[in-house]
Amino acid sequence: MKTDYLQSLLKFMDNSPCNFLAVESIKGMLEDAGFKELPLSNKFAIKSGDKFYFAKNDSAIFAVTVGSKPEAETGFKIIAAHSDSPGFRIKPHGEMLCEGGIVKLNTEVYGGPILYTWFDRPLSIAGRVILKGEDALHVVTRTIKIDRPLLQIAHLAIHFNRAVNEGNKLSKQKDMLPIIAHVNDKLEADNMLLKLVAEQLNVAIDDILDFDLLLYDTTPACTFGLHDEFISCGRLDDLSMAHAAITAITECADRDTTCVTAIFDNEETGSGTKQGAGSPVLANALRRLVEARGGSFDDFGRALQRTFMVSADNAHAFHPNYAEKFDPTNHPSLGGGPCIKINSNCKYMTDAHSAAIFKNLCIEAGSPYQYFVNHSDVAGGSTLGNILTAQIDIEGVDVGNPLLAMHSARETASVADHLNMIAVFKKFFS
Ligand code: ZN
């Protein structure tokens, strides 16, 4: 089982180079497990035992297993994670023909990547393309992944900046633009990207109306370490938690209680979009679900009071090179188990009550657990939990597996932690 879940994660990561492709990979996992698509635009005709999913904007996805008892009696069990990761997005009119026939691409930074980890590694392009459809309001969406190294962001040679290793401020607009081609004439550079996309999708260039295209690292996800105990891959924040949550709901649907796995987009930019955790998408769907089964608004309200949510977004592992950055008494280590994230100023939704519940789940699943708290002089980040509780009146806990180098082009995680988190999620959903 250990290698199965690990192989499944590595494959999932390679097939999910960006939010849109992650949602597509998740659809595949859900359909293999018998989940059926129920678009939000359809009538919610739902009965006990149903397993269904719906997507929002092709970049957020929600899986549901319907329990036998009314939600007003049981509440919902929810695990939330996010599909997006920091990186680079290609701007419109991206081609820049430079001296000597070199073409570079104009990009914009998405979220907060560690910029210099993106230098000098083979990159490619993935995302979605919008094509002409029946009429102006009905367009067609296709996902795209160019499966070969296509670009590289080349660093300046050290000979031009001998002080580079003493700290080197980077400009997102000047330093971070990738090289895509060497061409002989200007014509070749014109619409280079659209031509490539059209060829890949086997459509006419005139049919392409727009695109959301992102860069990704083409080096496959892998394990490393003397015992292969670590995972090396970009986007583990937060696709590793998405993978664990989806694995759990496909294997362990609570027969009595309705379970939900919610994978939102745009956490890295503050969750404020229609497909983000700050939107009413989940609250509306949960209410429709209760009412579709004959419940009232009052039943929905009662259901929420009995609901528990695990907001799963990765935490920071104790870094052996930077002990001074970490809290003096809480050192969540890689391999030490899922982290319960606590912040006295309520950046996380965790409190003693919800932490205790998650702790119980870990104990019952036979998993170790640890605490993540910030060093009191270090600000730290925020996550999904509190943004969701502003939309839905529920209790929950912020957790996540420890990572090193969060937001690097390649982050480091632990194999054991991933397997443990799956075990805890399965316990929650059973
Ligand atoms: Zn995250």
Topology:
Elements: H1 2-15, H2 19-32, E1 36-37, E2 51-56, E3 60-65, H3 71-74, E4 76-82, E5 87-97, E6 102-110, E7 123-135, E8 138-145, E9 179-182, H4 186-189, H5 192-201, E10 208-217, E11 222-224, E12 230-233, H6 236-251, E13 258-264, H7 281-292, H8 297-305, E14 308-312, E15 315-316, E16 339-341, H9 352-365, E17 370-372, H10 384-389, E18 395-400, E19 402-403, E20 411-414, H11 415-428
This protein binds zinc ion.
Short summary:
With 430 residues, the chain is α/β, with parallel strands linked by helices. The protein contains 11 helices and 20 strands.
Structure description:
- With 430 residues, this protein is an alpha/beta fold.
- The chain has two domains: 2-85 and 234-429, Zn peptidases (Aminopeptidase); 87-217, Aminopeptidase i, Domain 2 (Roll), CATH 2.30.250.10.
- 27% of the residues lie in helices and 27% in strands.
- The chain contains eleven helices and 20 strands.
- It has helices spanning 2-15, 19-32, 71-74, 186-189, 192-201, 236-251, 281-292, 297-305, 352-365, 384-389, 415-428; strands spanning 36-37, 51-56, 60-65, 76-82, 87-97, 102-110, 123-135, 138-145, 179-182, 208-217, 222-224, 230-233, 258-264, 308-312, 315-316, 339-341, 370-372, 395-400, 402-403, 411-414.
- The chain has a nine-stranded mixed beta sheet with strand order 1-2-3-13-4-14-18-16-17, sandwiched between helices.
- Strand 7 and strand 8 form a beta hairpin.
- Helix 2 runs parallel beside helix 6.
- The longest helix is centred in the middle third of the chain and has 16 residues, at 236-251.
- The chain starts with a helix and ends with a helix.
- The mean pLDDT is 95.
- The chain binds zinc ion (ZN).
- The site of zinc ion (ZN) has 6 residues, from helix 6.
